[in-house]
């Protein structure tokens, strides 16, 4: 009984150490993921409201990643590419 309690505590300690070692990477991936979700939502809203005026941007993985990683400059980049191409 005491051996299993010590084993569980040791396992939790190892899980804590692994979590601490990878926390920065996990936090970065979560940050990028949240920004991409917000970027996709922003593209959807732009298409919804500006679509009646004839301005639409493609909602695809490439544009969502661009907007998620770059933010507002990414939106300006997508808009400039829309007018150039």
Walkthrough of the structure:
With about 80 residues, the chain is mainly alpha-helical. It has one domain. It is about 85% helix and about 0% strand. The protein has helices at about 1-50, 60-70, 70-85. Helix 1 (about 1-50) crosses helix 2 (about 60-70) and helix 2 (about 60-70) packs across helix 3 (about 70-85). It is rod-shaped. The mean pLDDT is about 90.
The rounded distance between the terminal residues' Cα atoms is: 70 Å
Helix content: over 70%
**Average pLDDT:** 88
Number of discrete domains: 1
Radius of gyration: 22 Å
Number of strands: 0
Number of helices: 3
- How do the helices and strands follow one another from N- to C-terminus? HHH
Summary tags:
mainly alpha; 85 residues
What is the gist of this entry?
This protein has 85 residues and is an all-alpha fold. Helix content is 85%, strand content 0%.
Describe the secondary structure blueprint for this structure.
Elements: H1 2-50, H2 61-70, H3 72-84
Helix pairs in contact: 1-2, 2-3
